Amino acid sequence: MKKKLISLFLMAVIGATQFATAQDLSAYDGSKDNPFRIETVQQFCSLASYLKSGQMNYIVLEADLDMSGVTDWKPLFNNGGDYPFFDFDGKNHVIRNLTNNMPGAYDYPGIFGVLCGNVRNLGVENADITSTGGTGIIAGYLNHSQFNGQPCYVENVWVTGKVTASGYCGGMFGNVAGESHFYNCYTNVEVNGSTDLTGGIIGRVRGQVDMVQVYAAGSINKGGGIIGGGFQDATPEGSYKHIIVWNNTENNFGPVREDGDNLVRVFYYDGTNFARLQQEVVAWDSQVWTCGMGEGEYPTFAAPAGLQIVDGYYLVSDADQLNQ
Hints:
Helix content: 10-25%
Number of strands: 23
Shape: globular
């Protein structure tokens, strides 16, 4: 009996230690040489408490995460005070089943809330975000003025799921406020907004946007297939190259300033050209994109093993291709 009690006690101690370790990130300082390494849902949920304001926090996702056990996700940073900056490398892992259905609880719902920095090599599957504020699956707000004019980069990122908002909203980002660059990204999201500042990728555009090799599938109930608009006189012109609008059949990209925004090789789904659009995406770079070419099958990223990665970024097979 005594041996059994001792065994049970040891099991309880070991279990508690493992649970604490599953949450604990104190071994990391978030520097480039010692980034926060996320291996569990518990660690991801506790990450916000370790972030350092006013400096870059380097984060590496080391495993796929199933967030279905988290009732309502709290963004990594919501709003107010001194902002943390992010450099997030998903290492081609996937965050699944993330939900936030607490309208009004957070200013900028999404994984990050307010994102100042970079995110790359990340998939987000079956997310469900509902809000009254600026809303996007990756972040409600991209590149706040506290980032001091530095550009943000979003590369090799894809999202699927649903966004519902009474404010400006997008499949990836609700609002882009500063210079931001998107490379090799796609969304397949049902976006339901209550205003015209609704977009398949971005809801409101208040900063310079540079977008290359991006498509938006799914659906929008209003606004634009890629952007919702909302420019001000001071908003810099945008550049959109190799873009496919797959979420409507009305040639609806979103508001475009004819004397400013630069659109190159933008294609639209017309209800009959699904195969043509599949081919177009794979032709962007067959080392990055792949597709089975079945009816209704959207292109995805090719197996990472076939790509050369330097400092966490894919190298495209033809550097000149991005400038065509």
